[in-house]
Specification:
This protein has 164 residues and is an alpha+beta fold. The protein contains four helices and eight strands; from the N terminus they run E-E-E-E-E-E-H-E-E-H-H-H. A four-stranded antiparallel sheet has the order 1-8-3-6. A four-stranded antiparallel sheet has the order 2-7-4-5.
């Protein structure tokens, strides 16, 4: 499969682009952003060697859900599959198992974060309905949730895309 090197801050694909292939990171780091280049851009995650990107669009044929940007000048990506059938009938079952494991870990992390955010919002609403003060534990959860979102937003801005 084809390999390509990307320079630091080079866009690999943009949110909304057609999903034409899936990649495996051979070296370097890739940031995944929502709203890349906008003041409100948010870095969702940072991926490194051995991880995959672009798999969602290849599986469901939907446009790219986020923008991928090289975070280091030594970022090398290898095209793993250019169509769903080639992904499914891969010559490397180990690579597909690795992809499935990574997708499972990402889904678990997202599910855990979503459940915690929902629980925090629910507790805030209940406290406000009851007219009670938010206890220290709830205030800490609120601060942690907001800090996580703010950190992701600031990390996205620090990558330099907000000025494009």
């Amino acid at each position: 499969m084809e390999q390509k090197q990307y320079q630091k801050e080079e866009v690999i694909f943009r949110e909304g682009d057609p999903s034409t292939c899936m990649y495996r990171i051979e070296s370097g780091k890739v940031g995944i952003f929502l709203g890349y280049g906008q003041a409100s851009q948010t870095r969702l995650t940072e991926l490194s060697a051995g991880q995959f990107l672009g798999e969602m669009g290849l599986l469901d044929a939907a446009p790219r859900s986020a923008t991928a940007v090289a975070l280091t000048g030594d970022t090398v990506l290898r095209t793993v599959a250019e169509e769903r059938d080639s992904l499914i009938s891969s010559e490397s079952p180990e690579e597909m198992l690795s992809l499935l494991q990574q997708m499972s870990m990402r889904l678990r992390r997202i599910s855990r974060d979503y459940a915690e955010a929902c629980r925090t919002v629910s507790d805030v609403v209940e406290a406000e309905k009851a007219g009670t003060e938010k206890d220290a534990a709830l205030q800490n959860r609120i601060a942690k949730t907001l800090a996580g979102y703010e950190a992701a937003r600031l990390a996205g801005q620090a990558e330099g895309g907000a000025d494009e």
